[in-house]
Structures are given as C-alpha cells and as structure tokens.
Design brief:
The complex is a heterodimer.
Chain A lengths: L2 E6 H12 L3 E4 L7 H11 L6 E4 L3 H14 L3 E5 L1 H6 L1 H9 L5 E6 L13 H5 L6 E4 L3 H16 L7 E6 L7 E6 L2 H8 L26 H30 L6 E4 L6 E5 L3 H14 L4 E6 L1 E3 L3 H8 L4 E6 L10 H9 L8 E7 L8 H17 L6 E4 L7 H11 L1
Parallel strand pairs in A: 2-3, 2-4, 4-5, 5-7, 6-7, 10-11, 10-13, 13-14, 14-15
Antiparallel strand pairs in A: 1-8, 6-12, 9-11
Chain B lengths: L2 H8 L33 E5 L10 H4 L7 E2 L2 E2 L12 H5 L5 E5 L3
Antiparallel strand pairs in B: 1-4, 2-3
Classes of the chains: A alpha/beta, B alpha+beta.
Bound molecules: iron/sulfur cluster (2 copies).
C-alpha cells in the first residue's frame, strides 16, 4: 500500500533521497533549494541513511565533490538553484563529459541579475546544453517520482549521463500538497545497486577518469556523449513504464491534456501546467477545443513526438518562463518551432515569455493566451510572435491600468 | 608484464571511431605516460658529459620527467624521448657534468 502524506516539494525530494540512500551527498545551501540538503542532513544525523554528507564551501565545490565521488564509484546526489548552479557551471560540463550519472535536484529560480530569489526557468534553460538530462515536474508528486526515476535513467549503460530533476522554486518546493509515497523497500528495489563499469576505487582495475583529450580524441568523445543523450529517450520511457507498474502513475516525454481534438494548444513546463489545466477545463465546458502539452523531458528534446502531438492544431502558444535574449524568441519556443518545421500544414505558433522573477501567473493570463490563439485561428495571422505575458507595458492599457491601481 | 603487452591493453589509438572509444575518454589502465613522447617539446637540451660525472646522483631525483634512467645504481644517458629540457638537472649538478645547449645546434 502506498503511503499517503502531505509534504512540500523539497521535503518530498529529501524523503526520496532518504529512500534511495545514496553513497554521497555534497551540497551547499541556496534558496529555494536549501531545505533539500537540510532535511537530508537530519536523516544523516539520525542514522536513517548510510550516506557520506559533504558540507562543502561553495557550489563549485559541491559539484566537484559529486564528480569525484561518482567517479570513485559512489551513487551521488545534490541540489541547488539559480546562482548556485551558475557557480557549478564548468563542473556541469565535466560531469556530463565524464559520463557520471549524478542526480541533482534543480529548484528553479530566476538567475540574477537583477537579484531575485523567486521562480522562473532561467537557471535551467541556461544549462540546457550542458549535457545533462533535464526532467521538469509540475507538482510535489512529480518531483518525488522524477528524482527516483532519474537514478535509473542516468545510470543506464546506454545513457550514463547526469540528470537534473527540475521543479519550480517556492511554488512546488515550498507549497505543501498531498502526496503518495512509496514504501522504502520498494524504492530500494526499484533503484537497485549502482554498478558502474569503470570506477576509481576498483582495486582490480587502475584507471584514469577525465584525462586531457587532444584534438585526435575529443570529437569522438563528444559524439559518444551525444549518443548517450539520444539513447536516453528510449530509456526514459522504459523506466517510466516500470515505474507505472509499481505506482500506477504514468509518465511520458510530455503529458497531453485534452489534446485529441484540440485546435488551440499551449505548450508549457512545470507548475504553470496546473493553472493551465484549470483553464482548459473551464474553456472545454464552454465547448472550446483547447488543449495543453506539458513537457516533462526537455533534454533530450522530444522533437518528433511533439511535432506529432501538435501537428493537428491550428495555433499554438509556447510558454517560456525565461527570456532567450537572442531577440527572436525564448528557448522552448525556438525548439518547438524547429520541431514543427517538417510538418505539413504547420500550425501557427507564437511565444509568450511569462512569470519572470516570480511574477504571478493567473488563470486570467492563460485565458488571454487562448483568446489570442482564437484570434490567430480566425484571422490566419500570427503577427509579432515574440510576446510577453503579464509584463507591465505602457502600451498595454489593461495591464498598465491594473498595475496603476495596485500602486494606489 | 612486458611493455608490448601493457601497450596493447591501455592505449586507445588516435582517431578511434566514437563507437569504439571509452566513455568520457576513460583510460582503462595506469602507467602509460611513457607512451606519450614529450621530448619534441624541448627548446633546450641537456648534454651529459660522462667523463666529468661522479655518479653522485643529485640530478636524478630533481628531474620532473623521470628522464634520467638509472642502471646498477649508476645514471645513464638522458631519455630524450621524454626530457622536456627544463634544465633543472644542469643547474643542480655540482661537477659541471651537464651542459645545457640550444636544441638542434
Ligand atoms: S649530478 Fe652531475 S655528477 Fe652527479 S650524477 Fe648527475 S650528472 Fe653526474
Ligand atoms: S632537462 Fe629537465 S627534463 Fe631534461 S633531464 Fe634535465 S631535469 Fe629532466
């Protein structure tokens, strides 16, 4: 029997880590991820895990310690947010290129500056090409489930890559929700034992990890790394299938919500999907053909599958919780748009940058997006596809007036 | 283990296809630095003057590249495959038994 409980996202992830019982956890506190190592270190102190907890002096050291430990043959985990991950930067790439399946919970937060501790996806999106697998969860339950599956995905022999378990800072990390936990033994059995092929503490095989890679080698190692990422798609689905048998909870590369006959769709990552599903239900009740796609796996990017799922729509809005600063659209938009390039009768597609630095996303905001899409379907024109939602704009009379009212 | 056997095990040849190379460039054995010849990096070259050498062996432990071979407790001529020409040995020799000259002259 599954255990019903009520936990914050951070506590749920810490509980999953207790159940996984990794060999090493090295972490440095940063809002809003701090609670993960905080709860976990209490499990260490209370003797509930066998983990070596390394209280390092910076995030650069945290990731370095994780790399050293995982290379030694230890199953290793950590957690961070925003500028903490920014300080890990060079080590993120090294973890991936050394093919070390470290699992890191990234409690997403705006990457300063301006300095801000609230949620958006600028930290995760900045690291999207560092070679880490990226899973995005909508709720506490998904953050818990994803971190358990992450262990199996990363360690799979065809993958061998680090995995980021991304969930929204404060919204998911600190809000307490109902959750179904697995029994400790079931998690233990599901993750199994870590059996790396090569590891530094193997007394029977003296090896070197992370050597200098001159031009006659480097390219082949990067190509092989890319293959690990490609292989991950299949492995993620296999692990999800096994997880479903255990829990009854179904996971894919993305979730399709009321998409079957949808003419208008929103593509979104993370907790905003919850708000958007509420709006979809309301509009559906009025007979509107609207749907939602929530991307769970952003790396590897499920391009073909998304193209297939979206191809029958007339208009799509891709929601980005971080800007791209290329002047031409944010990361999720550019990738979804590129995925649709080969589709015949392509749907119209627009981009909304929203929720930056913790700006609230209300159901009325999502309603606006669907009504903008309705207009595009009607006129057949998607002008100015690079848009902002919820920014106070002097030219947007409604928003500016509302903002002025709050000031008074 | 003979050098030949060792070499077979640990050397991943240059331009090995990506499907056959080790993940992340893991080197699956140790003690293979000798196969990487660093002598070509040299701009200056130490010359051992055997007749002036007293076999005090002060030079031997100072070489950062283990390029002064020892046999029967006596130093041999330099291992020019690996000597990088740093000149430490020439500096340390108390008997002026090592010249330090421009490479190629
Ligand atoms: S330090 Fe000079 S004298 Fe002593 S062993 Fe070396 S070369 Fe010979
Ligand atoms: S020049 Fe430097 S590297 Fe060469 S033998 Fe002397 S100490 Fe060693």
């Amino acid at each position: 029997m599954a255990i019903r409980d009520k936990l914050s996202g951070n506590e749920a992830v810490a509980v999953a880590m207790r159940q996984i019982n990794p060999d090493v956890v090295a972490a440095f506190p940063i809002t809003p991820s701090t609670e993960v190592p905080q709860y976990f270190s209490s499990f260490v102190s209370n003797g509930l895990v066998d983990t070596e907890f390394v209280a390092v002096e910076s995030e650069h050291s945290a990731m370095s310690a994780c790399i050293g430990a995982q290379a030694a043959g230890a199953r290793t985990m950590t957690a961070t947010s925003a500028n903490g991950m920014a300080l890990m930067w060079e080590m993120l790439y090294i973890a991936a290129s050394c093919r070390l399946p470290i699992v890191m919970s990234l409690v997403t937060r705006a990457l300063s500056g301006p300095i801000n501790i609230h949620n958006d996806h600028s930290d995760a999106m900045g690291a999207r090409d560092s070679g880490w697998i990226q899973l995005f969860g909508e709720s506490n339950q998904e953050a818990y489930d994803n971190v358990i599956m992450a262990v199996r995905i990363g360690e799979h022999k065809d993958v061998q890559l680090p995995v980021m378990n991304c969930y929204d800072g404060f919204i998911t990390s600190h809000a307490v929700e109902n959750i179904e936990l697995l029994e400790d033994e079931k998690v233990k059995a599901f993750v199994g034992e870590y059996k790396p092929q090569h590891y530094l503490l193997n007394k029977d095989e003296a090896i070197a990890i992370g050597p200098l890679d001159i031009p006659s080698y480097y390219f082949e190692h990067k190509r092989s790394q890319a293959q690990g990422m490609r292989n991950a798609k299949k492995v993620i689905l296999e692990v999800a299938e096994e997880f479903e048998k255990l829990t009854g909870r179904k996971y894919g590369l993305f979730e399709e919500y009321k998409m079957d006959d949808a003419e208008r769709a929103i593509v979104v990552l993370g907790s905003t999907a919850g708000t958007a599903k509420f709006v979809v239900d309301q509009l559906r009740a009025q007979g509107e053909k609207v749907g939602l796609v929530k991307i769970r796996v952003f790396r590897p990017f499920p391009a073909e599958e998304l193209a297939e799922a979206l191809s029958h729509c007339k208009a799509i809005a891709v929601m980005d919780k971080s800007d791209g600063f290329n002047g031409k659209g944010a990361p999720v938009f550019n990738e979804v748009r590129s995925a649709l390039y080969d589709v015949e009768n392509k749907p119209a597609i627009i981009n909304y940058i929203y929720g930056l630095g913790g700006r609230d996303v209300r159901s009325t905001d999502i309603e606006k997006v669907y009504s903008d899409l309705a207009q595009i379907v009607q006129t057949g024109k998607a002008e100015d596809p690079y848009r902002y939602l919820g920014v106070v704009d002097a030219n947007d009379i409604d928003v500016a007036a509302e903002a002025a009212a709050t000031r008074e | 283990m003979s050098d030949a056997v060792k070499k077979d095990k640990c050397i991943i040849e240059e331009h090995t296809p990506w499907q056959e190379t080790t993940l992340g460039g893991v080197v699956t054995s140790s003690g293979n630095a000798q196969y990487y010849k660093t002598g070509g990096w040299r701009a200056m070259k130490p010359i051992w003057k055997e007749d002036q050498c007293k076999q005090c062996l002060l030079c031997w432990p100072t070489c950062p590249d283990s390029s002064i071979p020892i046999k029967d407790k006596k130093r041999q001529d330099f291992d020019y495959d690996h000597c990088k020409g740093c000149g430490v040995c020439a500096k340390v020799c108390p008997f002026n038994a090592i010249d330090f000259v421009v490479e190629g002259e």
